Amino acid sequence: MITSVNTTALTVSDMKRSVAFYCDLFGFKVVVELPPPAERQRWDQYHEEVCGIKGAQILVNYLEAPDGKSSLELIEYLKPKKVAPSRRSIEEPGVTIVPFGVKDSKYAVKKLREAGVEVLFDPVPYETDDDVRSFTTYLYDPDGNAICLFEILED
Question: Residue 60, SS3?
Fold first, then answer.
């Protein structure tokens, strides 16, 4: 049945703003923008059928993470155009949390706050019974998608 987990996709309300957020603040880079103009009609018909959204038109940007191994997909619906709902709390069922591995959490949080990002708390330390130490930090992207920054501390 299931063989793997593919790229995480997030629906965003403003592609330019979201690309700037993920690329400028987290170091992702855009590797593919879809659909190609020549495929717009076929692309939209396919997406309408797959998602059941009548008249759907979307833009997609595939972003490559700084490690070059993982990626994130951003989808903006041009039609139907909806306003982003108010941000949901992390404990609400249905909230997606996108985890990112990070180095130097304290520095990352400082830079994010300087850029105006609402970070919920300073990095929170944790230690397992096996002496694995980590920092965890939660924040939200511009559309209210939850992000978890997770750092494993090395001695």
Answer: strand
> What's the pTM?
0.91
d(CA 112, CA 63): 19
Amino acid at site 152: I
Whole-angstrom distance, CA of residue 139 vs CA of residue 97: 10
Euclidean distance between CA atoms 122 and 99, whole angstroms: 16
Residue 4: Cβ-neighbour burial (10 angstroms; 0-12, 13-18, 19+): exposed
List pLDDT tens digits, range 130-140: 999 999 999 99
Rounded-to-integer distance, Cα 60 and Cα 11, Å: 9
pLDDT digits (tens, 9 = 90+) for 105-131: 999 999 999 999 989 999 999 999 999
| Burial of 22 from C-beta contacts in 10 A (0-12 / 13-18 / 19+) | buried
Distances (CA, A) of 88 to 15, 36, 51: 20, 34, 23
Residue 20 DSSP class: H
